[in-house]
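Q: what sequence does this backbone want?
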């Protein structure tokens, strides 16, 4: 079945003790609604409804699913439900808070705390419209907190797999929240049946482009680096599949010299290595670098694998041999 637009639940519908106010977002995997709970508190409700597998017509509540698509739909349903259970165990200020999840209309719903604010993507667009550079202090401040939340996610055996500025929400006080775990259908548990993850070109690591790519914390780390890069230039990095054929990223980094510190540029470069083993292997290792000055260099040979064209980096990577053991030790921590 080709992807289609599914009709949202009608405004005012009462479901499992919640009242749907309106649809606030939709994508290929789910529909998100603003709703009120029994006490009148605002919540966000996410409905599992992959548009490539299920079709719901206006006026209907239960989607139509073909016999061919039913097995995959059910696998995704189980993963979505398990994801909700896992996220419900997480109580962290930088991760969206799951309050409840329930079954209805032959699918599953996840109830989350509703927050006022805007996405990091909206902030980037606003700053670019005003011709303002996003400061390095802001980038470091936001992503140290994002990594705090993502470390908790990884501790609970979940991967995000679609981290990007649009999925980083900034509360009105500026605190970031990681949300939209719709792509988090691949966990660390090899026994869970796999679905092909959805991904966003530019923010997705190269291993998401192949069915045999080994996914792990390093996969979300690529997306963290891509999100920091988007803050710097206002757009995502070159898609990973294109970089394999003609890597233009060295030129982008060269143009950022003098705009951001060599330490931050080196950090983002490290995250965006095409080889998963050349990236930081844990969020702890990445966060340690983000918090400290100066940052340790990427693994030996990383610069050459990226490109030999980024001028001035010979000096930046001077002394790499002396720090190799320390960098390797850091990446083994969690």
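A:
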């Amino acid at each position: 079945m080709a992807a289609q637009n599914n009709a949202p639940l009608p405004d005012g519908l009462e479901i499992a003790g919640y009242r749907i106010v309106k649809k606030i977002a939709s994508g290929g995997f789910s529909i998100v609604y603003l709703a009120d709970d029994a006490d009148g508190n605002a919540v966000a409700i996410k409905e599992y409804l992959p548009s490539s597998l299920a079709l719901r017509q206006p006026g209907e509540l239960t989607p139509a699913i073909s016999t061919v698509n039913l097995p995959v739909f059910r696998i995704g349903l189980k993963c979505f439900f398990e994801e909700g259970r896992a996220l419900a165990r997480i109580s962290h200020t930088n991760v969206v808070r799951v309050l409840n999840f329930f079954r209805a209309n032959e699918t599953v719903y996840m109830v989350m705390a509703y927050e006022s604010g805007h996405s990091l993507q909206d902030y980037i667009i606003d700053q670019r419209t005003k011709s303002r550079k996003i400061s390095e202090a802001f980038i470091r401040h936001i992503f140290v907190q994002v990594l705090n939340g993502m470390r908790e996610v990884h501790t609970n055996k979940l991967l995000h797999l679609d981290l990007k500025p649009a999925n980083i929400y900034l509360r009105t006080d500026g605190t970031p929240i990681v949300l939209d775990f719709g792509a988090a259908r691949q966990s660390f548990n090899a026994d869970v049946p796999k679905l092909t993850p959805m991904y966003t070109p530019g923010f997705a690591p190269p291993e998401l482009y192949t069915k045999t790519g080994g996914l792990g914390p390093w996969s979300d780390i690529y997306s963290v680096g891509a999100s920091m890069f988007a803050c710097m230039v206002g757009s995502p990095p070159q898609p990973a599949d294109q970089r394999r054929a003609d890597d233009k990223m060295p030129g982008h980094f060269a143009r950022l010299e003098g705009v951001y510190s060599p330490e931050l540029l080196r950090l983002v470069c490290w995250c965006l290595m095409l080889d998963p083993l050349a990236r930081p292997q844990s969020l702890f290792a990445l966060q340690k670098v983000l918090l400290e000055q100066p940052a340790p260099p990427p693994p030996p040979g990383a610069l050459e694998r990226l490109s030999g064209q980024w001028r001035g980096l010979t000096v930046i990577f001077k002394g790499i041999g002396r720090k190799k053991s320390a960098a390797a030790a850091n990446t083994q921590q969690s």
